[in-house]
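Deliverable D2.4 — example input (structure tokens):
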């Protein structure tokens, strides 16, 4: 150790020692001091901005983002829920639509309503009896969208596209009047079978 280094060490020595070990008062690294004082300055600014100034908290920002999300979802559901009966009447008897609807029915609905809609856990869809609708597309469609959790029917609004629901509905309504062995017993109220041109007000 050089003489100059020895002098610098003597200058850094603190007034206490333990068991012959002396402590040096070495200066902290500059990067550490910048980080330390920067954190203090940030903390002060943060306190005045959020606590004193009343700036929006993370929870406030989250709630605002959720409001935007719910508004977008509500707009989407409004568009999804607007049933176009005239469009449906055009595709109602289209064989390709019915076949596509049958494939969707098998994938999503058959587990509860059984093959062909004869009913199992869910009600029979081939008779004239309906629990939560009039059996016409204008009232069955929104029920498929919203479902009925108390009755075991899930909501399909965020699982199946609008045109796909139209296809399923076309298949189901074309099953009306068909008979199946071991079909489930009638449930609900009896309504006349739907035909193109009929509207919900016709059921009153």
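Example output (designed residues):
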């Amino acid at each position: 150790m050089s003489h100059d280094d020895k002098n610098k060490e003597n200058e850094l020595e603190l007034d206490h020692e333990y068991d012959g070990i002396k402590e040096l008062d070495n200066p902290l690294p500059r990067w550490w001091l910048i980080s330390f004082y920067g954190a203090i300055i940030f903390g002060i600014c943060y306190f005045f901005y959020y606590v004193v100034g009343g700036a929006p908290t993370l929870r406030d920002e989250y709630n605002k983002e959720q409001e935007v999300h719910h508004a977008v979802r509500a707009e989407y559901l409004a568009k999804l829920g607007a049933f176009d009966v005239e469009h449906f009447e055009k595709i109602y008897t289209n064989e390709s639509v019915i076949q596509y609807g049958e494939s969707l029915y098998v994938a999503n609905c058959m587990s509860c309503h059984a093959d062909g809609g004869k009913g199992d856990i869910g009600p029979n869809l081939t008779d004239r009896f309906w629990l939560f609708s009039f059996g016409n597309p204008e009232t069955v469609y929104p029920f498929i969208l919203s479902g009925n959790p108390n009755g075991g029917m899930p909501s399909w609004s965020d699982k199946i596209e609008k045109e796909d629901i139209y296809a399923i509905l076309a298949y189901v309504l074309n099953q009306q009047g068909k008979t199946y062995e071991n079909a489930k017993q009638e449930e609900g109220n009896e309504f006349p079978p739907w035909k193109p041109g009929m509207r919900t007000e016709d059921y009153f």
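The domain at 81-203 is CATH 1.10.760.10 (Cytochrome Bc1 Complex; Chain D, domain 2).
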